[in-house]
Amino acid sequence: MKAPFSWLKDYVDIDVTAQELAEKLFSCGFEVEELSYLGAKINRVVVGEVKALTPHPDSDHMQICVVDCGEEYGREIQIVTGAPNVYVGMKTPCALDNSTVVESNPAMLEKNPDGIKKIKKGKLRGVESFGMLCSGEELGINDDFYPGAEVNGLLDLAKDAPVGEDIKKIVGLDDWIFDISITANRPDCQCILGIAREVAAVLKKPFKVPDFSYTAHKTSAAPVKVEVQAPDLCPRYVGHYVEDVQGGVSPAWMRKRLALSGIRSISPIVDITNFVLLEMGQPMHAFDADDIGGRKIIVRRATNGEKIVTLDEKEFTLTTDNLVICDGTKPVALAGIMGGLNSEIKDTTKNVFFESAKFARDNVRKTSRALGQSSDSSSRFEKGVDAYTNALGMDRALHLIEELGCGKVTELCEDVCAADLAPRKMTASVAKINALLGITVPNEEIVGILERLNFQPEIDGDTLKVVVPGYRDDVDGYPDLAEEIIRMYGYEHIVPTFLDQARVTGGGLTDEQKRELHLKNLLCTQGFLEAYNYSFYSPKDFDLMKLPEDAAERNAVRILNPISEELSVMRTFLAPSMLMNAVRNIRRGNDEGREFEMANVYMPRNTAASEQPEERKHLVLGIWGGKNDFFDMKGAVERIGEVFHSAFTYERAEKTYLHPGVSANVILNGKIVGVIGELDPSIALSLGLDKKVYLGELDLEAIELDDRIRYKNLPKFPAVKRDLALLADEKLTCAEVEEVLMHSCKYVTEAKLFDVYRGGQVPAGKKSMAFTLTFTPDAQTEKAFTPETLDGYVKKILGNLKFKLGIELR
Amino acid sequence: MKEKIEALRSEITAAMGQTETGRALYELKVKFQTELKGIMSGMKDLAKEDRPVFGKVVNEFKQDMESKFEARAAVVRQMEMEKKYAEERIDITMPGKAYKGGALHPITLVKNELIDIFAGMGFKVFEGPEIETDYYNFTALNTPKDHPARDMQDTFYLADNLLLRTQTSAGQIRVMEKDAPPIKILSPGRVFRSDDDATHSPMFHQMEGLVVDKGITLCDLQGMLAEFAKKMFTSSTKVRLRPSYFPFTEPSVEVDLSCSECGGKGCRLCKGTGWIEVLGAGMVNRRVLENCGVDPDEYTGFAFGMGVERIAMLKYGINNIKTLFENDTRFLEQFTD
User: Fold this and answer.
1) Edge-to-edge strands of the sheet including B162-164?
2) The domain at A511-702 falls in which architecture?
3) In chain B, what residues touch A513 (CB-CB under 8 Å)?
4) Helix (H) or strand (E) holding A280
5) ipTM of the complex
6) What tens digit of pLDDT does each residue of A653-711 get?
7) CA distance A549 to A753
8) Subunit contact B222:A495, Cβ cutoff 8 A
9) CB contact under 8 A, B325 and A495
10) CATH of the domain at B325
11) What is the pTM of this model?
12) Domain A2-38+176-203, CATH class in plain words
């Protein structure tokens, strides 16, 4: 919301600077996001009077002026100008040596984005010039700011402009614009008047109410009757008939107010509707009354397929979700958004029917979004207009009609109101208000604050009685009053206490949350960096991962209104995000790395789409580059299995996005709980990756993370290791051999493959596998292994290997 | 005989002076012992009466030589060590070798720190669902369908009634429905808003706090946030409340902390104001309590919510929110604990 300082001063005698006011507003809940000085680009430009003119000896269009800029700046300043409209006795803005004005040359603006043009003394075709005489454009103003500002040539100032005076004061640039952020609960402050009420309250100054008076004249015209068929969407509709409308130009004061708000003057009637919107926050509409068929205004829902052409000549096809204003036969306005072309104000308009209404904000918003049509009015209605202001806005408009003399206000008026306009009375306990705040605000402060905010407070004992102002729909309970009081009393009165009255509670993480953190820390100790990715990705990621059409991962929750297709489906597995992390890193030259992410995936349930999907926590790992291979990934998962007591086993996996020969399912208790492997080389090729990427993903919901530490007593005697080189069939896997090694002797606590060898003395179709076996004595067994007993165990193991797998000792 | 001994003495002593290694000294000693044996074997040729005299001379000779060997051994050991030291001398300016562990993401670091601070004050951690119903995200939080506050947040919808939560406040309702006061919960997690530009990310993290009990006041909120500010930033960090608006709190406040960069004097980080907007808070709206079956005439409470990314960016001086989600290893490595 933009509020000019000069306009606020119409309603309050402000005796503080713009900066001080900005701080006061900030403290009571109105953050001034920007306070800008209108004349910021203009410096050392003063009123000058042209005293003498002589032609330039070397130019047929330039003239040499002697300019009087007053005692301070010089009585006889020589300035060369090329402006044709200069004359002796002219008062015009004079930019002195070392001054700045607004850059108006578009070619220069590109070089000079701050838009400031510097003026220095110099020679124009050999004649010295000590400044520049300025046009309105060079001051950045138009006719609405100052009459004649758009003339092609020098700005011809009024004859009473005092010589030497700062030009900003003369043309209205000595002003500040407050850009104020208005919270959603205060639509009443989306206008100058609303801000002015707050300014008056915070400065403890009286509020000067604008003039709402007018005289209603008798008329012979037939009345325009209003019928509201959709009171839920239009709680109040106020209409008034004005005849003998005059064209012409609005007065300078109004044009300037509009100009300060960035609105061009059009005609008195249109200017008045714009002015009332700015001043009162009430959107107004003016119909050409003679275009209203049947002398009837009907407010109703549109019929399906009904059409309207709005003022900007756009045609819209409507539905019953849209509210329209109709005459006896056809729509004449899209309610709250824009008037119809068929009833717009023209130069020839004689009679006007003014509308000041409240339309349901939600409906205006929905219609505006659905049709892609918006206006200052619709954005105002979306924030919420109160029924109280409808009539007040109309009164103000009618007063301005009279003041501007641009029409005759008749006695023909309509007010269809379904809203309750009775003043809302509220009572509250002073003690409760103070209890919520935690301090005791003195009663006289409470009364003073609420009086200034127009709540008509009365305190009797503990009872506070107020009448809520008609424009304060947001106030409906004692906490609202507490807020009004404290924001004006000052938050600096709140003193820190530490839950003096509350009971002690125990806090902290749940066991599950602690285990998740433990898992993250475990991964960090293995060199993994934690990643965070968005919870959504592109459906194209499923294609990239070569998922078949019927893949479970493709059954994803979709966002109805995504930012883009790239961020439109909720993740069903995390691997695509991790792959993208690896790709991004490799492309940035981060050749080697390991990352993990722990996050939810979202699995739709088979029931209704309106049911919340299942959120399952997944862990994804990514390793790329360096000397890493599949077993680095497997090692990381094995480590998780060890620490969290999960006996993972591994079986060859079939995943479209993993190398068929270098991938494995992670199995726990017979169920697949994850998958690890190398990125499918064809995907790597399509991504142009020159590094191998390994991905691993675990469904943490399927794994009972048990990180309790169970201590085992140390054996009395040390473990003994024996190495065995075995000659095994090429087809046998390490896991198959391990299985026999581990289960042939109860003292074997580990069987670890350390070498595989083919060729040389190894026959074709066979491979040599070297294992280190660890024999650990029982804690209870009171003796160490002798070489003989160990030999016995090994013999038994070898027997089993030969019997079960046909393996020989090499 | 004596001549032989003296010759051997001078020969071995001279040779000993040349030895520089333990090995050479050992070999010399073996040679000496062999030669000595030879000399001693000549003893049987001596007259019987000369033998004790000669035995004494040999013994003295042996002891003399052994002490010489011992002395030389110490010298040689020292020489050998000197040599070893010289040989093994390294360029200590070469880079060290460290095992580089991984690192938690700054979002996790800040989350953990916040949890530590508030857990110490009795807050339990509650994580609600990320996909919420309209009711928990809006309606129960006093934000009905036509409420203008719904415009403040652009919501991702999944179905008519289903959305990606825009705020962790949704968790408040779930806790209050389940538990009776006293309630002190902290609700961290991912939230989503349809906003994607230089300073906004469509996904970010919030940390929501809620206290409901008898006699909770705005002063308590101020006190608790003052404690948080001191622990999270510096012991001199100050808290400032100023009026604001959220549908689920009344009164609502915006909470500024004194700028940790300049200590409140005003700098680039705080845009010269000395204050940094860090979180939103307020006294829980009566309607929200009612919606959860908590009697607002018996209980009051306060709630606060902050952006985890914002805190992380302030704390670590990260200037662009987007880098938090790019997962560049050069970024992540810097947060090693």
Assistant:
1) B131-133, B162-164, B157-159
2) 2-Layer Sandwich (3.30)
3) 125, 127
4) helix A268-280
5) 0.85
6) 999 999 999 999 999 999 999 999 999 999 999 999 999 999 999 999 999 888 898 88
7) 40
8) yes
9) no
10) 3.30.930.10
11) 0.84
12) alpha beta
